[in-house]
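Would you mind writing out a protein's amino acid sequence and the numbers that encode its backbone to help me picture the idea?
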Amino acid sequence: MAAALGLLLLLGLVILYSTSAYNGEIKFGDAFYYLKKQLFATAVGMAGFYAAFRIDYHVWRRLAVPGYLAAILLSAAVLLIGEEYNGSKRWLSLGPLSFQPSEFAKVAVIIFLAHMITKNSREMGKWRVMFKILFPILPIVGLVGASNLSTAIIILGIAVILIFIASPKYGQFVFMGVLGAGFLGIFLALESYRLERIAIWRNPEDYEKGYQTLQGLYAIGSGGLFGRGLGNSVQKLGFVPEAQNDMIFSIICEELGLFGAGILLFFFLILIWRFYVTASKAADLFGSLIASGAMAHMMIQVILNISVVTNTIPNTGITLPFVSYGGTSILFLMVEMGLVFSVSSLVK
C-alpha cells in the first residue's frame, strides 16, 4: 500500500508539471508555478498523514460528531461568504490561502459514518436505524450539492456503500436508490446550468461550452496506444482550458497513451485493493469502516473523473486524486491515507 501511494504521489507531481508548465509560464511567468504550490501542499499533507498515522484511530471517534458539525458550518459559510472561481463558489479565503471545505467534509463524513454505524451495529437491519444514520448526512449533501454537485454525489455514495457493507438486508437499498435519484433530480432542477450540462454532454459540438469536452477527447484520441511522449502534448497548449485540473487525464492519455494511462489506473487499483484488505482484516468494525470509506471515496472519485473526461457522463468538475492540481484536495487525501495506515498498523 505504501509503495502504491508513493508511486501515485510521484507520478502525480511529474504529470502535473508536464501538464501545467505552459499555463504557469503564460499566466505567471514561471513554468514551475503550479508544481511548487502542489509540492508545498503535498509536504503539508505528508505532515497530516504522519499525524493521522501516529494517532490511534480510535481517538477520532470522540471527534466524529464535532468534526461533522464543523463540516456543516464550513459548508454553510461557503454559500454565505465563499469565493467564486470559474463560476463556482467552493472556496473560503484564509488570508492569502484558499480552502475548499468540501474536501474536509469527505473525511469528516467517513469518520462520522464509521462512528454511527459502529454505535448501531447490532440493529443495522432495521429501517429506523438506517434512517437514523442516513438522515444526518443529508444536510451536508444539500449544502455541498448547492455549489458542488459532484462532491455531494461522492459523499452520498460513501454513505450508501458504508451502510450497504454494514447492513444484513439489501431491500433497504432500493429505497435508498429512489431517494438518491430524487435528490439528484432536485439538484439538477435547482440550477439551469446543470440541465444545460446534460444537453452539452449529449451534443458537445453544438455548444460553445462543449469546447473543453471535445478538446479533451481529441487529446485522448491523438495519444493512441503509447502517446506522444511525456511533455509533448499539443492540447495542453491552451486548447484544453486549465488542463492541470479536472481534465488532466486527457493529457495523460495524449502524452503517455492508453498504455501509460493504464499503468496509472493499475496503481489506483492496487491502492483500492489494499484498502479492501485492510478493511477485511481490521481489528474492529470502526477501523474496517474507515478503510471501507476511503476505498469508496477513491473508487467513486476516480471513476467519476475518468467518466467525465471521456464524456461518459455530464461534466461535473471532479479532480483525479493525487494527480490533479489542488492543495486542499491533496492535503485531506493524505490525512485520509494516514487514517487508513493507522487502521492497517493494528491489523490482526
Summary: DSSP finds 13 helices and three strands in the chain. Residues 1-58+203-348 form one domain. Strands lie at 83-85, 88-94, 97-99.
